[in-house]
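Allow me, if you will, to draw on your knowledge of protein folds for a short while. The matter concerns a single protein, recorded as an amino acid sequence and a row of backbone structure tokens. Could you please explain, in whatever detail you think fit, how the structure tokens follow from the sequence? I remain grateful for any guidance, and I place the record below:

…
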Amino acid sequence: MIGAIEAGGTKIVCAVADRKELPRVAERISIPTRTPEETLPKIVSFFKQYPVEAIGIGSFGPIDVNQDSSTYGFITNTPKLAWRNFDFLGAIRAAFDLPYFWTTDVNAAAFGEQQYGAARFAKNSIYITVGTGIGGGVILNGKVMEGRGHPEIGHIYINQLASDPFEGNCPYHSNCLEGLAAGPAIEVRAGQKAEQLNATDALWQIEAHYLAQACVNYTLSFAPEVIVFGGGVMKQTHLFPLIQEQFQMLLGGYMETTAVESFIVPCKLRDNAGIVGSLALAEQLI
């Protein structure tokens, strides 16, 4: 049996599965993300019930993924102050002497979609979540891409439209993708949440343009076989044709891809991508 932890800013999902039955989850619990002192005992108590052989962990970040670092396994400069500079992996290791795969929540989701979802059978894929923030995971040659740190492709700079006066909603960058196109940016612009906007609202054209720009940059940088979108904003399915159209215009035929309808696609695992991906990463350790 394998285990998984998907640590999010508001909740932490723990799950176990039989290796032969993936992506089916045997049991799971959801724990509110309070302080480590409140949350960790509940995580440990859950896994003590099962004969787990390995655990995959996808965590909110930023996190330290550099195995040569003295703070490998830590959640680092997170706005969640109780978790800042916390040795998450070390705390789990102290409870269970097992193999672990430690990565970001979006990397885990990317791997889940590559193994069992919309990017299945693709060796190279990108997963982007557009919600409260924008984050992404990159799969190259079937493996999660990491270096000294993990990709932060939600913060790439965007060429802002001359007709768009919005100053951006990111405290670090005035015109990064997250600041211009994440859910809070839509809400500030429109005065209402994305799901409340009419599908014909002109703001969706701006949103699609910025997400299409990002797709062009990812395509030119990583040469993926497919780009998968998830997150709350992307549940507005009318966005996909707009992004696909803008992507083709911006790419200008410079690089060949598969048909755009199968190149830029919605996630298949939906809200289960992260936990399924964490399980799949644990399975690879055995």
User: Anything to note?
Assistant: Strands lie at 2-7, 11-17, 27-32, 55-59, 100-104, 125-130, 134-140, 143-144, 226-230, 264-266. The chain has a mean pLDDT of 95. The chain has two domains: 2-104+274-284, 118-267. The radius of gyration is 19 Å.
